[in-house]
Amino acid sequence: MHRKVKEVADLAGISVRTLHHYDRIGLLTPRTVSDAGYRLYDEEDLDRLQQILFFRELGFPLRKIGEILDSPSYDRREALGLQEKALIEKRSRLDRMIVTIGKTIKNMEGESEMSQQEKFEGFDFSKNPYEEEARQKWGDEPVDRANEKMAAIGPDGREDLGRQMDGLFKKLASLRDRKPDSEEVQQAIGEWHEFLNGMGHTYSPEAFRGLGQLYVQDDRFTKNMDRYGEGFAQFMADAMSVRADRL
């Protein structure tokens, strides 16, 4: 059975725009085209989409997902086993975080005491063991420099980076009524570019532009960024594109 892009989007709970993006970057390109020129997805395409979404849920970037799925050593059954293990661990960690939230509320209301250690039960952003295992099986690549830096700076350093990022986003969000090519906006977007380059990966102009496009092409990015103000994701994409052109 073949399905059109809208049917697949509804089935998977993602946007048509996301599927078009996957097609455009070669991550998921349906092999069948109707007489009218529509892309048609078959069962193998849907299986690949399922894998893409599992990897996305586990925090893999799209580029890495493509490398894994196209690796000669990739095995779907093996991948599903690893994904199941990783998601069970993620569920366990989220359960611990929910308990921590409950304890924190009771502590705030004076119903119970809470140790400093208890405040952070369930948090662990230092590593993604599943990603390391997957890389060893389907790429045998070293950990990305950004991940290495995040692990090296420790919890305090990551918290500080989070505050810096939040401050930059708030500053940029306050400028979203300005034109993306205005001097004030470009100065602020330059600060964002420099911040990213300090994270252990150098963003070329085209990579920086691509990241901006991801803000509007990936629904998760758009939703999170638009918390800083309606249309913020699109504003960032436009401003980052202008900077890329100027560089």
UniProtKB/TrEMBL annotation:
Signal sequence annotation: none
DNA-binding recorded as keyword: yes
Record domain HTH merR-type: where: 1-71
InterPro entries, alphabetized: DNA-bd_dom_put_sf, MerR-type_HTH_dom, MerR_fam, TipA-like_antibiotic-bd, TipAS_dom
GO molecular-function terms, A-Z: DNA binding; DNA-binding transcription factor activity
Pfam families: MerR_1, TipAS
Keywords: Activator, DNA-binding, Transcription, Transcription regulation
Gene3D superfamilies with a match to the protein in the record: 1.10.1660.10, Antibiotic binding domain of TipA-like multidrug resistance regulators
Highest taxon listed in the record's lineage: Bacteria
Protein name: DNA-binding transcriptional regulator, MerR family
The organism of origin for this protein: Edaphobacillus lindanitolerans
